[in-house]
Design brief:
The structure is a single chain. It is built from twelve helices and ten strands. The chain has 352 residues and is α+β, with helices and mostly antiparallel strands. The chain folds into two domains: 64 residues, SH3 type barrels; 209 residues, MRG domain (Enzyme I, Chain A, domain 2). The strands form three sheets. It has a five-stranded antiparallel β-sheet. It has a three-stranded antiparallel β-sheet with strand order 6-7-9. The longest helix is centred in the last third of the chain and has 25 residues. The C terminus is likely disordered.
């Protein structure tokens, strides 16, 4: 009995599921082992179901639907630390070298923001209650911020152009303030939660390692404020300093203030984040391990900060073409500017 009987398509074999919903596991992403969890199994009745993978410590926006037939390449039993111990590779987290008998220290409370999602004021917030987390001595090598290749390429090309006497146009079309505001819009929080951030009452718990949506917003705003403090001393190449000085001087003149007051006190009017854009922001993120190493942090707080930084980097990488039109962002310096740049005193520290 041949003929048409032999022409029926062969039924696909259903993939055997090795993991259950709710099971903790290790998931590889770009060669890095992450602690993860199978949130649910989609299309369970089909030949190739999908595992919905949640990366622990990451926002749920980055959950991934992984086809079961690809799981053997990326999903593994046990913790990420166990996987690296047995198979090699690297972990995304932070390794903390704790100081014996370290006293408890309380970092200052978050700054208030009244006028806009990215505005900074000097208003004092409520006291912050914290449980006992040991202060850690951070090893710069262990603060892991891996910039995606497109962002690294921007920095390389930026250095090349600056070294050939080009300057970035300032103000940027997409300033850091605008970029951070855009990022905050992608985070699902209620209006009440957004308002409550200005009077945030934080209580850390050993069992709570989750990076909440509110924490993501606080981190993004904190990066913006940090940028405003360090730009002039840490993030500029020598050829850019006259441009920065001119901006600050113009701001001071418009407000009848001394240049130094405007440069160092953002509440007096000068916000670098309202002038500079993506490139200078990425420069700062690339240097965060070295910058954070200048201050003592408890390990719980630093992990929360870094969780927010990683989430923000994913957003920047996804949208960098919108925020930075490379060919239109630079301008050739005038002969007068070049003369000033090469004869200027080295008054601001170089990028290290």
């Amino acid at each position: 009995m041949g003929g048409a009987w032999g022409n029926y398509p062969k039924m696909p074999t259903k993939v055997v599921l090795e993991f259950e919903a709710g099971e903790s596991c290790t998931c590889l992403f770009n060669g890095v082992a992450y602690d993860a969890k199978v949130q649910e199994i989609k299309d369970a009745d089909t030949p190739n179901p999908k595992y919905v993978i949640h990366f622990k410590g990451w926002n749920t926006r980055y959950d991934e639907a992984l086809p079961a037939d690809k799981a053997s390449e990326r999903l593994f039993k046990g913790s990420a630390a166990d996987y690296v111990k047995n198979n090699g590779g690297k972990l995304p987290g932070l390794k903390m070298n704790r100081r014996p008998k370290a006293p408890e220290e309380q970092p200052p409370g978050a700054e208030s923001r009244e006028d806009s999602p990215v505005a900074s004021t000097s208003k004092t917030t409520k006291s912050v209650k914290r449980s006992a987390f040991p202060v850690a001595i951070l090893d710069e090598k262990d603060l892991n911020i891996e910039l995606p290749k497109p962002l690294r390429r921007l920095l390389v090309d930026d250095y090349d152009l600056i070294s050939r006497n080009f300057n970035l146009r300032v103000p940027a079309e997409w300033t850091i303030d605008r970029i951070v505001a855009d990022y905050i819009k992608t985070i699902p929080v209620t209006h009440e939660q957004l308002k409550s951030i200005d009077e945030l009452y934080v209580e850390y718990d050993n069992a709570d390692q989750k990076v909440t949506n509110v924490a993501l917003i606080c981190t993004a705003r904190g990066l913006c404020d940090y940028f405003n403090v360090i730009l002039g001393y840490q993030l500029l190449y020598k050829f850019e300093r006259n441009q920065y000085n001119d901006l600050v001087q113009a701001e001071a003149a418009s407000k009848g203030l001394k240049r130094g007051n405007v440069a160092t006190l953002p509440e007096h009017g000068f916000r670098a984040s309202a002038h500079y854009g993506l490139i200078h922001l990425v420069r700062m993120i690339a240097r965060l391990p070295k910058l954070l190493n200048l201050t003592q942090w408890n390990d719980h707080l630093i992990n929360r900060i870094m969780g927010g930084v990683h989430d923000f980097v994913v957003f920047l990488n996804k949208n960098h073409r919108q925020y930075f039109a490379f060919a239109d962002e630079y301008q050739s310096a005038t002969s007068e500017y070049y003369r000033r740049a090469v004869t200027a005193d080295d008054e601001l520290g170089p990028i290290a």
